[in-house]
Amino acid sequence: MRSVGDIVALVSQLDDAASADAAPLEPDELPPSTPVVPKPPGVLTRGWRWIAPSISAALVGGAVAGLVDGLGASGMTAIGVTTGFVALLIVPILLVLGLLVRGVIAAWRPDVLRMRLVETGGGAPVLAAWVATAVLGLAVLGASVIQATWTVARQMAFTLPNMLFLYPVIVAVLALALVGLSRPTALAIERAMRRLDAKWTLSPRRIGLVTLGALGVALAIAWFAAVRPRLGPLDTSPVQAPAAGLLAAVVVGFAPRVRRWFVGLAAGIVALTTTTAIATTVMRPVTTLEVWGDQPLAGLAIETIFDLEAMRTRVSLEQFRPVPTPGAVHPDIVLITIDTVRADHTPPYGGTAAMPTLGELAKRGTVFEWAFSPSNVTRRSIPSIITGLSADRVRGRVVGWALRLDPRHVVLAERLAAGGYETAGFMCCEGFWGPRAKTGLQRGLSHLVIERDGAILGQQAAAWLSARRAAGRRGPLFLWMHILEPHNWLEGVSLPPSEPTDRSKLYDRALAASDSIIGTVLGAFADRSPADAPIVIVTADHGEALGEHGSAYHSTDLYNSQTRVPLVIVGPGIAAHRVRETVSLTGVTPSILELAGFTPRNERMDGVSFAPLATGRRASRDDGVAFAAMIKDRSNPGNVTSFVQGRYKLLRIGSKVELYDIHEDPHELNNLARTYPTITAELEAALAARNAAAAASPF
C-alpha cells in the first residue's frame, strides 16, 4: 500500500507534467532522473505503417503475376508489355484485397482471441475443435451443393432461370442445417482434441498449419476426383497468373523478412514494365494488340484501359476496298449460316429432315458434296469463315462462348461495304454479335438486328427487305443471317433420349424449323426475275455428333459428324450441278468477293475461292483440301487437327494418327492408317508443310 508521502509525490509529478504542456523543457534541462518519453507517431505515420505491408504485397504479387503471364509472350518487349499491363491491373486489386484482409484481421483482434482460447500449457483444443467443425462444414456444404446441382441438371432441362432459383434455396437450406449442427459437432470434436492436446500441444500455429494443409489436400481431391471429371476439358491457363500473384502477395503480406528481400525488386519491375507498356502502346500499338490476343490476363488489362473497338472504328474502310473486276456486275448476296448442321441429315446429302426450301435450292444450284468447317465450335468457325483464315490463324480472345477478334482482322462485311455494298445482319445471338460482347463479328454491318427466336428473326429480315425495296434502295446488298435453332435441338426436352433414332428425330425437327426460316427470308425476293435474284449461299458453322465416336454433341472431335457441313449456292450465273471436290469454308470470303464482282487480291487469306466451281468455269479436281483444328481454350482441349485431301482424311489426335477413305466410309469406322502407310505419310507431310506455312503472322 502506498503511503501518504508517495501519493503526494505522484500528484506533484502529474502537476509538473501538466505544466510542462504550457512551457515544455528541452531534454538537457530535464533533471537527470526524469526519463525522456518518446513522442507517439502521428496519424500519417501510423497510417503509413499500417498500409505499407499491403503495398509491398501488392507490388510483389503484381510483378509475379505479370512475369507468369508473360512466359508465353514472344520477345523481351512483349514480355515487358505483358508484365506491365498485368501489374496495372493486378496491383490495385491486390492492394484493396490486402487492406480488406488486414482490416478484417484487426477487427477480429486475434491477439485478444488467442489469449481467450489458449489454455495453460499453450494448447488451444477449443480453437482446434471449432476450426475442424468449420472445415468439415465447408466440405459438406461444397460436396452437397455440387451433388445437388448435378442431380437437378439431370432431372430437368439445365436452364439458367431454374438454376438461378434453385441455387440460393439449396445453399440456404444446407447452410442453416450446418449452423444448427455446428455447436454439438464442435463439442463432440473438442473431447478428441483435448486428448490430442495432452499428447501434442495444439498451439494456434500448429492448428493453422494443419488446417492449411488439410484444406489444400481436400480441395485437390475434390477438384480432381469430383469436379474436373464432370466439367470435361477446361483451360486453366487464364487463372495461373492470378493464382501465382495472389500466392506471392499472401506470402509477402505475412512474412516481414521475405517482404524486405523482394519489395525493392518488385517495385523496380513494376515501374519499368508499366512504363514500357504505356510507351509501346503509344509508339508501337501493334505489339500491344499482339499481347492482347495472346496473353489472357494482360489482354483483360488492355481492353479495360483502352476501347479497342473505338480505336478500330476510326480506321477508314478505304484501305479494305476490293478491286472491282472489269465489266462485272455486283449482285445481291445472301449468306445464311445455320448453327450446328451436319450435312448427312439434310436432303441434298441424302438426309430425311423436312427441309423443302434447302432441297429446292439444291436442285437449282450447286451442291458441294464434301464441304468442311474450319473447326467444330462457333467461336472458331465463324471468325475463320468471315476472315478467310484457318481457325488456328485467327487471333483473338475467348469471351463467354465467343471469340473477340483481334482488331487487326478485316471481316467480309467490311470488305463488301468498302466495295459499295449496303450491308445488313440478322443474327442470333447477343453473346456473339451484340454491342456489349465486342467480338468484332458485327464490323461492317450497317444494319444489325439481334434476335434469338429464328422465326421472329426471319420475319424481321423479310420485313426489312420489303421496306428497303419500297424505299427504292437498289444498290448491291449483302445480307448475312445466322440461325441458332439446330444448336438447341434438345430445347424443351427434360431428358436427352438415349436411343439414336429418337435423338435423330429431335435433331431433324430443329433442322425443319431452320428451313422454314430460310423460306421466310428468301420469300422477300420471290417477285424478282431470275436475272435480278440474289446469289444465296446456305451453309453451317459446324456439325453435330449424335452419338458417333462416343460424342453426344459437338466441340469434342473432328470426325465428319462435326465438320462435314452443307454448302449450297444458287443464283444468277450459278450452275445447277454437284461438285465432288473437297472444299473448306475458309473459302467463303474469297468466293463471295469473287461472286460479288471483285478480283481477289493477295489478302493473306488461307481460303481458296470455290466460285469457279459454282459457276462451272472450272471442273472438279481430286486434290481439293480442307484443314480443321480444335483450338485449346476454355472448354476445348485442343491438340486435334484434320486434313482432307481428295477422298482421304487424316486425323491427328495428340500423337495418334487415323486415316479414312471418306467417300467409301463417310462415318469413319475403318481406320486405314496401317493399311495405307504411304498415303498416311504423304498426308502427314502435307499437314506438316501446311502447319509450317501457317506459323507466319496473318497480318
Question: Care to give the gist of this entry?
Answer:
This protein has 699 residues and is of the alpha/beta class.
The radius of gyration is 34 Å
Which spans of ≥5 residues are poorly predicted at pLDDT below 50? 1-27
Q: How do the strands of the widest beta sheet line up side by side?
A: 8-7-9-2-10-12-3-13
Largest sheet: 8 strands, mixed
> What proportion of the residues is helical, as a percent range?
40-55%
DSSP summary, beta strand count: 19
Write the layout of secondary structure elements.
Blueprint: H1 4-22, H2 43-69, H3 76-108, H4 110-117, H5 125-155, H6 160-199, H7 204-231, H8 237-254, H9 256-283, H10 285-294, H11 296-305, H12 308-313, E1 323-324, E2 333-338, H13 356-364, E3 366-368, E4 371-372, H14 378-387, E5 396-399, E6 402-405, H15 412-418, E7 422-427, H16 430-433, E8 447-450, H17 454-470, E9 477-483, H18 500-522, E10 535-540, H19 560-563, E11 564-565, E12 567-570, E13 577-579, E14 583-584, H20 588-595, E15 598-599, H21 611-615, E16 625-630, E17 640-645, E18 648-653, E19 656-661, H22 677-694
Parallel strand pairs: 2-9, 2-10, 3-13, 4-14, 7-8, 7-9
Antiparallel strand pairs: 1-15, 3-12, 4-11, 5-6, 10-12, 16-17, 17-18, 18-19
Any key phrases for this structure?
alpha/beta; 699 residues; single chain; 22 helices; Alkaline Phosphatase, subunit A; disordered N terminus; 4-stranded antiparallel sheet; 3 domains; 12% strand
Fold and architecture overview:
The chain is an alpha/beta fold. It folds into 3 domains: 41 residues, no CATH class; 252 residues, no CATH class; 378 residues, Alkaline Phosphatase, subunit A (3-Layer(aba) Sandwich), CATH 3.40.720.10. It is 52% helix and 12% strand. β17 and β18 form a beta hairpin.
